[in-house]
Structure formats: structure tokens, C-alpha cells
Amino acid sequence: MRRHILASTSVLALLLGGGNAFAGMDEAKAFLDKEIGDMSSLDRAGQEAEMQWFVDAAKPFAGMDIKVVSETITTHDYESKVLAPAFTAITGIKVTHDLIGEGDVIEKLQTQMQSGENVYDAYVNDSDLIGTHWRYQKARSLTDWMANEGKDVTNPNLDVNDFIGKSFTTAPDGKMYQLPDQQFANLYWFRYDWFNDEKNKADFKAKYGYDLGVPVNWSAYEDIAEFFTGREVDGKKVFGHMDYGKKDPSLGWRFTDAWLSMAGNGDKGIPNGKPVDEWGIKVDDHDRPVGSCVARGGDTNGPASVYSIEKYLEWLKKYAPAAAQGMTFSEAGPVPSQGEVAQQIFTYTAFTADFVKDGLPIVNADGTPKWRFAPSPHGVYWKDGMKLGYQDAGSWTLLKSTPDDRAKAAWLYAQFVTSKTVDVKKSHVGLTFIRQSTLDHKSFTDRAPKLGGLIEFYRSPARLQWSPTGTNVPDYPKLAQLWWQAIGDASSGAKTAQEAMDSLCAEQEKVLERLERAGVQGDVGPKLAEEHDLEYWNKDAVSKGNLAPQLKIENEKEKPVTVNYDELVKSWQK
């Protein structure tokens, strides 16, 4: 759905409590009074100083019309409906902030990258494209931009180091190519009330010989899924797992958004494995992709990857509602909130606002949740030092094909909607955190009990193990679309897990080969390696202190381990 938000002068005056449009600080003060108040990491004097900077920096661009675009989520809806009109009133720069589907954002971005025509003046696109932007060099390096052409429109109070996702948008050349605007993680979700029920605890201990708790590994997750599936809780039979399986583009997100990393695919490394990442793509010492298949030293079709697909298929069939196999991402998302699911190996924390609504069967009468978030369990191939899950980081991107004056005006808007003045309030609306100063704000300490562990997780050291797709992926749009088709073949039964991943890695290498032949990414583009067997590449990896591709573990059902949720949170706070 596309929305064109461009408020008229009268609407802006009404929104901001009267006064003339483009009155600069008068409008800014009205905005701070009406919308921000003390929901900011800056005091009132700091807010006004930051707004004064925007008023002054925007003067050369007053009256300009710019267009920016993002996907449709709550955070961007707030930016489009509230912050864009406010920015226009304060600066005189007229902003149309379009909201469209995530796939449509990528399509518009690709069109501009390929044609050189200025479709939008700035894009909020996932930092999953960092490898794409760095290799194609179609996006401005923000590091260079802030130091040179964009210096006069770069907020001295931007504080890049305050952004918790800075490493996600920094390429191997050490430069930052995107500015995070919103972030959310994929976390384990479970019914805290059911896990603390004395009868459930006693029955589980009697059957499995260990305590019911947050599963640390997949073996425990599997036991918990089995235990709850078909069990009567609160007067109805429930399920121990939830997922989705329809052959649809959203099925690819389930896996590129780091299902394989939980299993133990790839190498150690934060934010992503090196030299093999969680997609199974290997790079050489110069960050050139050399392969995806095990035959070239990759891990997309290695034992860890195949194990992850097999477990996905097994759990979906055994422990999830039957309808889940025919669901898409958007259809499956709300199901746990209906009160019949005990746990989910990961759900997007962007759903948090939908999981805490009054009246839901998963919310107590006092507004506190009956559920909690916790770190996702890991598979048998996972080792300490690996990433453990995915974090989405929608980030502002300026393409080189956008004229400088338009890019400067758009950069001002990007900084406004991520500024310390507005970020605390914006984060309360969308719960998609980008700044440490926001996470530290007292208002989130106060609100934490109603957010099911979200704040505790984001304030903990554990969050470092959650990261977006990294720089090993040389062309995210081309490669990401291959995943749902391969996984869909496995989900439908058309192929085994091994056959599906063999097909996927081969298709990924066809793309790498085309990029290599075309030479469009210069001396950091793909350069495919010679082919050898799994044993050869495993021995080569181990000799260099790496892991991937790992050899198959014969007994993939390891000893199950759980941890008490409340003790886990206490350990973070220490």
C-alpha cells in the first residue's frame, strides 16, 4: 500500500498547534511541546539546540520537494504521518515519505541503481544490502559524505557511535554506507506462565529428567515442543511449536534471516562468520566471494545447513498446527497471540506491540504479558563465537545518482527522524531500537515489565550475537530470491533437504559466476574457487583455525539443556 503524505500549510499549523508554516523555531517548539515532551534523551535546552541546527542547515533548501521511501511498518508509519509533516513545518523542505512493500522498496532501489535515474532521494532499505552497496559503489559512502560534500548538512549531534547497529552498516573498507533507522531482532518466544505452572514443571521433569525452562539448544526445544503438543492447558489442547511452510517469497526470509546461523552454519565471527557466513557463502582474504557449495569451501549445502532444514520440516509437521504448513509469514505471525502455542523458536520483535494489546489471551488483566522473549536455542553444529540470530536494520541509503542538493535535503530528513530529540518517542511507538541513549532512557525501564523481556535483551551483552546479513553476500536482491524457491521445494516434499540445499548453492554460484564474468564489482567481486570434496575443505578450514564446512555429526540429538528465565535475566544485569 502506497501513501503520499504531504501536509498542507493549514494541516501543519493544526498539527503543531497553530502558527505560520515554516516559522522555524516557533514550529519546532510547538512540535516539542505537542509530540516530544520529556520523551527524549536530550533535555529541553538540548532539544531546542538540535532543532535550531535543523532550521539553520535547511535554509538553502526551503521550498524543495523531496521523496523518500521505506517499507510499511509501524515505525515508518509514524515517520510518514507525524515526523515528515513536522520536519516540513520546521524546515520548509516538503517531504513525501512513501510507504510500500519491502520487495517494492528493493525493486525501486534496483531500478535506480541500474538506470541512474533518480526515483527517490533516499531509501530506507535493510542493511542486508551492505555487501551489495559496498561492491557496486552505487551508494554514497556516508563516512566520505559526512566529511566532504555533506559536511554542511551533517548534524554535529548525530553521534554515530550511539547507533547500536553501526557495525551492520560498515563495509570491509571501514566506511559506513547506511544509517540505521529501525532495528528488531528474531528472538525465542514462550509462554512464561505455562513454563512456571507447577504441574507442567513436575510432569516435564518426570518425563524428560530435567527442568522445564528456556531451551539453550535444539534438543531441549524439541523436547518442549513434544511435551506441549496435544497437552491440555487452560482447558484446550495446545501446540509446542509454530512456523509456516507455504512456498512463498516470505519463506525465504525465515532462512536468510538466520535460521541456518542458529543451527551452526558457517564460521565464528561477530557480526557475521568469516570466511564463511551464515548463508554458507565463503570469501577469500580480499573479501571476494569464492563459493557457496561445499565443493568450493562454502556451507550452503553442508551438514549443518541440511540438519537445519530437516529439523524445520520435522517440527513443522509434528508440533505446529496443521494449517501452518500452508501459511505465509504474515498469516503465521499473529497465531501465537491467540493463546494456543507454547513456544516459537524465533519471532520478530517488531510484533511486540501486537503481542501486548489489552484483551489478548496472552496478556494479563494488569497489562503485563503472559509470555517472554529470550535468546533463541542453538543447534548441534553451533559453537561459541558464532552469531545466534538475525537482527533487521532498516537503514537510510543515499544513492550517487541522486543530485547533491536533493541528497542533502533528504539527509537532513534522515537525521531528523533518527535524532536524539525524537528517537525515544519514536521508539515507544515502534519498539525498533537504534540508539544506546534511547535504550538507557528511564521511560523504557518503567515500561520494561510490559514488554516481555525486550528491553532486558537489548540492554544485555547477548544482543551482539544478533545481526543482519553481512558483507559476504555480493548481490542481496539477486541471491535472496533463490532461497524461498529451494526451501519451498523441501517444504512441499518435492525435494529432500539435501537436494534442496544442493540446488540452492548451485543457483547461488550461477549468480556469483555471472558477476565474476561481468566484472561489475571490480576487485572485490566473486572469484570462484576450484572444486574439492567436503573432507578436503574441512581439513583446509581446520588448519586455518576455522570451522566451515563442518563434517556431519552422527548423533545430532545432543544432551538437552535449559535455563531458568529469571536467572538468565539476572545474569545479564550483572
From TrEMBL:
One of its GO terms (molecular function) is transmembrane transporter activity. The keyword Phosphoprotein does not apply. The keyword Membrane applies. Residues 1-23 form the signal peptide. Pfam families: SBP_bac_1. It is found in: Periplasm. Keywords: Cell membrane, Lipoprotein, Membrane, Palmitate, Periplasm, Signal. SUPFAM superfamilies: Periplasmic binding protein-like II. It comes from the Bacteria. InterPro entries: ABC_tp_sb (IPR014597), Bact_solute-bd_prot1 (IPR050490), SBP (IPR006059). GO terms for cellular component: periplasmic space. Belongs to the bacterial solute-binding protein 1 family. This is Carbohydrate ABC transporter substrate-binding protein.
